[in-house]
Structures are given as structure tokens and as C-alpha cells.
């Protein structure tokens, strides 16, 4: 029995890794437009690419908790449809930990533009307020194991406003 259990564990871990990789690396197409757009106006490699890579990273790190919150909210629908999302494969609690870890990483990444002086204090305050608000919702959903739809919806607003505030700050504040 032990050998069979071991084989099943290996087979299952391969599937778990595949789900995680698909749902994290699947964010690349969504984050690439900023790199493509920047490359079209700045075709030669320069130090400026660091900034665009950070924005790409912000979008990449944002996508997993955004989708996983939706997957938590619609877990039964995904299960009925046969889609192996994180809450179905890993369970609600583990997915909540991943949402929290990725969401915690968003705040310092979003503050990069203020820290290096690309954006003003206005942006720094707005990014911090948005990031802390998002973390509050994530923590609340983590603790109470509900409110996933609120996390999902606010994540859209969070991404939109961070990008709007970067644009406003660079165009009007500098």
C-alpha cells in the first residue's frame, strides 16, 4: 500500500504544480502590453527598462490574488465545470495564504515608483492607501473565509487606480 500511496502522491503533486504554474505564469500575456508599449517608444535597451519591468512585475504579482479571489468566490461553479483552480486543487485555506502572500508583495512593488523618485508624494500616498485598503480586504477575507467577491472587485479598481495615478503623476505632477 505504501508504494501505491507514494505513486499517487507524486502524480497528484505534478498536477498541483501544473495548476499553480498555469495560474501564475498565465498572467504573462496580461502584463506584457506595458513592455510592448514601452518598447515601441523606446526601442533601445536602457536603464528605463528597469522601471517598466517593475510595472510588469506589479501586474504579474497582481493577477494571481485577483483570479484566486474570483476562484474562491466561484469555487462551486469551477468545480462543476471541471476547472482545476487553486481552491479546488489546494483547498480554501492554502489558497487564502497564497492570496495574502502575493497581496503583501504588491504594496512595496507599487511604491517603487515613489521610492526611486519617478512619482511624487501624491502618488506615494495614493498607492499606499490603495495597497493598504486592498490588504485590509484580503486579510478580512482570509480571516472570515468570505468576501472574496469584494477582494476580486476591489483588485480591479486597485490596478486601474495605481496605473491612473502613475499616469497623472508623471503627466501633471512632475
Q: Quick summary of this structure?
A:
The chain has 174 residues and is an all-alpha fold.
Molecular structure report:
There is one protein chain. This protein has 174 residues and is mainly α. It is built from 8 helices and no strands. The protein has helices spanning 2-25, 28-41, 48-73, 75-81, 86-89, 92-115, 121-144, 148-173. Helix 2 runs antiparallel to helix 3 (48-73), helix 3 (48-73) packs antiparallel against helix 8 (148-173) and helix 7 packs antiparallel against helix 8 (148-173). The longest helix is centred in the middle third of the chain and has 26 residues, at 48-73. It is globular and about 50 Å long. Residues 9-13 have low confidence and may be disordered.
> What's the tally of helices?
8
User: Using DSSP, what is the number of strands?
Assistant: 0
Output the structural class. mainly alpha
Query: Terminal Cα separation, in Å?
Result: 68 Å
Which ranges are low-confidence, i.e. pLDDT below 50, for 5 or more consecutive residues?
9-13
Helix/strand order, N-terminal first:
HHHHHHHH
Overall shape: it is: globular
Rg result: 19 Å
Strand content: under 5%
The amount of helix comes to over 70%
Largest sheet: none
What is the overall pLDDT average?
Answer: 86
